[in-house]
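Technical annex, item 7. During the second reporting period the consortium partners agreed on a shared format for inverse folding records so that results from different sites could be compared directly. Each record opens with the tokenized structure and is followed by the designed sequence. A conforming record, contributed by the partner at site C, is shown below for reference.
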């Protein structure tokens, strides 16, 4: 068999894979809906929930640490931290981020 050929797949494998992909898609959708609801109830930006979780678990963290945990680009983490800072939920201090959650 050349490296370009795939082994024949049984219908069971294909159906099992499709079912898993469907389940993961539904799980992701439900997670987004739940995150939107939590963020709305708390008055926080939804995208900032992962930042607040990182800070809640680790305490002060650099922007690169904040970006690394949810595996996002530093520019994305920077926008999320900026939105949280604008809303008064975090306080950027000397290129580090401290958790200061609003009551």
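Designed sequence (site C submission):
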């Amino acid at each position: 068999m050349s490296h370009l050929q795939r082994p024949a797949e049984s219908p069971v494998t294909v159906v099992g894979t499709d079912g898993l992909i469907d389940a993961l898609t539904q799980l992701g959708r439900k997670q987004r809906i739940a995150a939107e609801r939590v963020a709305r109830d708390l008055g926080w930006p939804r995208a900032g929930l992962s930042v607040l979780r990182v800070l809640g678990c680790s305490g002060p963290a650099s922007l690169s640490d904040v970006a690394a945990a949810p595996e996002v680009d530093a520019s994305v983490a920077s926008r999320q931290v900026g939105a949280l800072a604008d809303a008064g939920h975090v306080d950027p201090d000397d290129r580090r981020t401290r958790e200061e959650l609003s009551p």
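Residues 28 and 100 are 29 Å apart (CA to CA). The helical segments are 11-42, 49-58, 63-68, 74-86. All partners now use this format for quarterly exchanges.
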